[in-house]
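Sat 14:20. Reprocessing the chain from the morning session after the first attempt stalled halfway. Input below, unchanged.
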Amino acid sequence: MGLANESSLMDFILLGFSDHPHLEAVLFVFVLFFYLLTLVGNFTIIIISYLDPPLHTPMYFFLINLSLLDICFTTSLAPQTLVNLRRPKKTITYGGCVAQLYISLALGSTECILLAVMALDRYVAVCKPLHYVVIMNPRLCQQLASISWLSGLANSLIHATFTLQLPLCGNHRLDHFICEVPALLKLACVDTTVNELVLFVVSVLFVVIPPALISISYGFITQAVLRIKSVEARHKAFSTCSSHLTVVIIFYGTIIYMYLQPSDSYAQDQGKFISLFYTMVTPTLNPIIYTLRNKDMKEALRKLLSGKL
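Finished this time. Tokens:
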């Protein structure tokens, strides 16, 4: 019997941080603070990018997609985490766990591809400035965004479904605060070598190849920027690219640490706190980084606050 058949009427017990009860109140405030900050920051980016005509460019089109992704991703995880941090019975229904797994996996995978697409946009803007408007036309931007979303959805449908077929033999104590593939694999009562191989292959496709392509594109970008004679133009190029690169390093760094280290070296408590960082903190950092390091966004924010937008 698969996981779905034997577990459809049973809840999962999310052990989460229950072995650190003294931290739960602090973690509740931590998660709530960053969740609200994520909502406010990313909604602000979406509103500013929509209202300010100078920001109607491919870069901000993709940034709107990233902000929408972060809002949906955090919302798929934070409310349940907050509820379980404040109640003694830390459970999630089977249906809730399945929904959380599919949604968070789809959105996380989408962001992996979208960040690579944003690197392509920066490459064209810096290395092919005279052809930028022609190359990054609205139709291509929409196609690239669609590919990002659809690839994330496809990965979720395949990967999550494959994981949910594993028999649990009555194991429903999930040693995590969210329903995540590595934690679910540990519940299975059969050999999971094939599933772990699939996890590794998927991780390479979504977590290794995109940052490798991003690194190559930024190699070309760096060469192009160093050839710019204008100090002001060089500074602007470095500023916009460094914002994206900072987000890339933070996002991929935590994901690679979680998914590509050998399972026998995986410290469960450490893994939970790393998961907490990339699910709750990283979506908050995106708007902060883009607004603080981006002159155009800061100017648009000033106009919004002064009522000029």
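The radius of gyration is 21 Å.
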